[in-house]
């Protein structure tokens, strides 16, 4: 049995992300991915049994990466709003730097490719975000609304800002970032 090489997995993931951003999730094949990655299609099948397995693995990896980055520098002992801003800014930076991943994850949420097991794993990975919002609610700083709805609002606003910035080829100014955060905070605060 051939040993799997983590660098090849990363090449495969990067190829899939590029292709999904260009052609959409449904529009790519294993052959497309292997060509983009610069590996033989047979080699691709050593790593993944098919497109469904590859998409689920990449989705889980993408979600894990984004959660890990989101909470860098977050200190739960600091006041809520500055801590929330730290997480919010980390998410924004990550999404700006990993735009193809943003497109991929968004398409996966609306895709039949993602299994129930993978969706459950994604929900488990989102637990720190739920905990953060619930902390704000406990401190009576955030609206007493469904936590999932509040997170949907936050992520939706961030995703749209990132897409607008990417497709307009404009640099996101500090002023626009601050204004967007203030709008988000005003919508969430109790």
From TrEMBL:
Regions recorded as binding DNA: 29-48
GO molecular function: DNA-binding transcription factor activity; transcription cis-regulatory region binding
Domain called HTH tetR-type: residue spans: 6-66
InterPro entries: DNA-bd_HTH_TetR-type_CS, Homeodomain-like_sf, HTH-type_TetR-like_transc_reg, HTH_TetR, Tet_transcr_reg_TetR-rel_C_sf, TetR-like_HI_0893_C
UniProt keyword terms in alphabetical order: DNA-binding
Pfam families in the cross-refs: TetR_HI_0893_C (PF22604), TetR_N (PF00440)
The keyword DNA-binding is assigned to this record: yes
The protein's name: Transcriptional regulator, TetR family
Organism expressing this protein natively: Chitinophaga jiangningensis
């Amino acid at each position: 049995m051939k040993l799997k090489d983590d660098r090849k997995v990363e090449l495969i993931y990067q190829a899939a992300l590029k292709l999904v951003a260009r052609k959409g999730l449904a529009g790519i094949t294993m052959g497309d991915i292997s060509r983009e990655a610069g590996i033989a299609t047979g080699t691709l099948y050593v790593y993944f049994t098919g497109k469904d397995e590859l998409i689920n693995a990449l989705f889980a990896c993408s979600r894990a990466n984004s959660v890990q980055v989101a909470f860098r520098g977050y200190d739960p002992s600091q006041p809520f709003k500055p801590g929330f801003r730290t997480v919010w800014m980390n998410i924004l930076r990550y999404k700006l730097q990993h735009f193809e991943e943003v497109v991929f994850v968004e398409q996966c949420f609306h895709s039949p490719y993602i299994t129930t097991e993978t969706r459950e794993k994604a929900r488990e990975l989102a637990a720190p975000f739920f905990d953060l919002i619930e902390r704000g609610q406990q401190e009576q700083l955030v609206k007493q609304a469904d936590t999932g709805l509040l997170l949907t609002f936050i992520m939706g606003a961030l995703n749209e800002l990132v897409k607008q910035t990417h497709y307009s080829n404009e640099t996101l100014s500090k002023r626009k970032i601050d204004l967007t955060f203030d709008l988000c905070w005003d919508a969430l605060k109790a």
